[in-house]
Specification:
The radius of gyration is 34 Å and the shape is globular. The protein folds into five domains: 51 residues; 150 residues, Galactose-binding domain-like (Jelly Rolls), CATH 2.60.120.260; 58 residues, no CATH class; 179 residues, Sandwich (Jelly Rolls), CATH 2.60.120; 141 residues, no CATH class. Helix 8 packs parallel to helix 11. The protein contains twelve helices and 30 strands. The N and C termini lie far apart (106 Å). The protein has 656 residues and is α+β, with helices and mostly antiparallel strands.
């Protein structure tokens, strides 16, 4: 060092000293720049990791869970818990969840937070215990415990949804959903020990996954992954204020779920379009795909309304109810939706080959069928047949215990290794009712006989509560000018059984003639926005069936428009006004169509025809693309509804 100093201070070496000084300054600057850039880079990486962690705070792709397999269970408290072993080197961890209704969250035995508003998600930071940490030689696990209260005195929506989000030192995110792997109990849990690690939950059941996020009854409400900063902007120079208001409106409407069939086309078309930042399991796509794919079609092809339980046809709109249409009803079990007065006794009813064993609000009228062909007969009634084209029969069936024991013994005796005798299975099926039917009397036909008889489908013990619709109008003796005076049901049983009757009531036709068109339009919108070939492959059969039903049921080929043949849907008003302004209600006539509840439409229905015209054109274009793309491996339509036929039919509808 001394030699180097002497060398530098020597006057003859001044030029070398200048160069060395410059080199030292350059290296110092370079070092400082590298340190600064590293700090900036580290800051940017940390910022990105935080952003990624925040983006993980969403409910996309998760399922609501509960302690019973129902989205509308009885009120009460349920308890959920699960033990976790986490990856080491975790630097950030949070629990992200919500529940319907109030929750209290515990982690490793300690209370960390609570929330009583299901539309608001909560996020709680947690401190993990490393997987290798031990206490007294025993490995310590992390335990998450959640208590959820379903408030109220009546059954209501209840559920828990969320996840644990972890991020390690490299920024990798790990997600642990609150799912069916959680242990749960709907019974009282020890206030002190159930949330501890060493609590024995071996007798608890696994939770039930009751509904995907985004579906009914909760819909979409978590906007964590669709903030305004990610939503498309509307730019019109000089009108930014108005454009911001328009954008805010779309942001507010974006979470709206597909509920019933009535809104599926409008919601799909108006809320799937935003070019939101790509995210895993986009909730809009996931929920809409599930909702549209789950539409129920009748055997003939009619698309169900998918509404809450009503008092019209089960696959129709919930109303008009029987009392709104001047019909009649007997509700032996409690109706919690409409609070319909219960029928508290069976006075006036006649039963044969059967006996009453109970009558309560939960199970209704309980009848033991003691001999073959047991019957029940109503007291005298007086209902115009125009408001009774259908009888709705809500009932359950349970085979007699002695008979079932005999069946089980026969099946057991016939079993070898892993095979049950087919004769025993056939024998079991023989105990179910074979040909149940309903007969009725009227003012014009005063006696029960086979001429006014409608057979209906038998049910079995495993079917649960069934809403059977019995179409009186399909019998040639049904007369809209006649008056119904009595009904009699023969259960067609061959052996003893127990029947619980929840309700029997008249029903008008509450179906809507636009359902199939709305369903097809929604399918087309979903396919266009998502380019989801799996959806197309899995739903094309239903789509074709729905279209064929609409064309055939509404006689489109012959009328070149929709003609609604259903009772009460002929387009006439249900209200007559005489020259003096006096109003007379014509019950059973003028039933709403197209979800315009006070407007009859029907008959040769212009607005329904417009919907179908659009659906036919969309299906024609879709079938054309299917034919052009054999690699999609979708079979061409073999039901006569070729693209050429559909395009021709659409042209003729437009000309007409």
């Amino acid at each position: 060092m001394l030699i180097l100093l002497q060398y530098i201070t020597n006057p003859t070496n001044k030029h070398i000293m200048k160069k060395l000084t410059c080199l030292i300054l350059f290296l110092s600057f370079l070092s400082f720049s590298c340190i600064s850039e590293n700090k900036i880079l580290k800051t940017e990486i940390e910022k990105q990791q935080i952003e990624n962690f925040d983006l993980a705070k969403n409910l996309n792709g998760l399922n609501w869970i509960w302690s019973v397999d129902s989205t509308c269970p009885n009120a009460g408290t349920s308890y959920f818990r699960k033990v976790f072993n986490f990856t080491p080197n975790i630097k950030r961890a949070e629990i992200y969840l919500t529940s319907d209704n109030e929750n209290s969250v515990f982690f490793n035995g300690g209370f960390i937070g609570s929330n009583g508003e299901w539309k608001v998600t909560s996020s709680y930071e947690i401190k993990l215990l490393p997987i290798h940490e031990t206490q007294g030689g025993v490995k310590i696990n992390n335990i998450l415990a959640i208590q959820v209260v379903n408030e109220g005195s009546e059954p209501g929506a209840a559920g828990l949804i969320g996840k644990l989000i972890l991020q390690d030192k490299d920024g990798i995110i790990f997600e642990y959903p609150i799912d069916k792997t959680f242990k749960c109990s709907g019974a009282y849990a020890d206030a002190l020990y159930w949330k501890k690690r060493n609590f024995d939950d071996s007798k608890w059941n696994n939770a039930f996954e009751i509904a995907p996020y985004g579906t009914s009854p909760w819909g979409m409400f978590d906007l964590a992954n669709t903030p305004a900063s990610l939503f498309p902007e509307f730019i019109v120079p000089g009108h930014q204020k108005e454009m911001d208001l328009l954008r805010d409106m779309f942001v507010l409407h974006y979470p709206v779920p597909v509920l019933g069939t009535f809104n599926m086309q409008w919601v799909t078309e108006s809320t799937l379009w935003p070019a939101i930042k790509p995210i895993k399991n986009n909730p809009k796509i996931v929920s809409y795909k599930d909702a549209i794919s789950s539409r129920e079609l009748s055997d003939e092809g009619y698309v169900s309304c998918h509404q809450h339980r009503g008092l019209g046809l089960p696959d129709g709109w919930p109303f008009p109810t029987w009392w709104q249409s001047k019909g009649i009803g007997f509700h032996f079990a409690k109706d919690s939706i409409y609070n319909t007065p219960r029928t508290l006794n069976t006075e006036g009813w006649k039963i044969k080959n059967a006996e009453t064993t109970g009558l309560d609000e939960e199970y209704g009228w309980q009848i033991k069928l003691t001999a073959p062909n047991a019957t029940i007969q109503s007291p005298p009634i007086s209902v115009q047949e125009i408001v009774a084209p259908y009888i709705r029969f809500e009932w359950t069936w349970r085979d007699d215990a002695k008979v079932m024991n005999s069946i089980n013994r026969e099946a057991g005796a016939s079993r070898n290794v892993a095979r049950t005798s087919t004769s025993a299975i056939s024998h079991a099926k023989a105990w179910t009712p074979t040909k149940p039917y309903l007969e009725w009397t009227s003012v014009l036909h005063t006696n029960y006989d086979s001429k006014r008889r409608i057979y209906f489908k038998p049910i079995q013990s495993t079917d649960g509560l069934v809403f059977t619709v019995i179409p009186l109008h399909e019998n040639s003796y049904w007369n809209p000018e006649d008056t119904l005076t009595g009904i009699r049901i023969n259960f067609g049983n061959t052996k003893p059984a127990t029947v619980n009757i929840h309700a029997i009531f008249t029903a008008v036709d509450t179906r809507h003639n636009v359902n199939n068109s709305l369903y097809l339009q929604a399918c087309d919108s979903f396919i266009n926005w998502t380019d989801d070939k799996d959806f197309l492959t899995n739903n094309i059969h239903k789509m074709r069936k729905a279209l064929a039903y609409a064309i055939n049921e509404f006689q489109v080929e012959s009328n070149k428009c929709i003609f609604t043949p259903w009772i009460g849907h002929d387009g006439r008003s249900g209200l007559l006004i005489d020259k003096n302004g006096k109003k007379t209600v014509r019950y059973g006539v003028g039933i709403g169509n197209g979800y315009w509840d006070i407007m009859p439409y029907g008959g040769k229905d212009a607005i329904a025809t417009i919907y179908l015209y659009d659906a036919i054109n969309k299906m024609a274009n879709l079938e054309t693309q299917i034919a052009k793309h054999p690699e999609w491996k979708i079979q061409n339509n073999s039901d006569g509804l070729s693209p050429a036929y559909l395009k021709r039919l659409a042209r003729e509808i437009k000309i007409n």
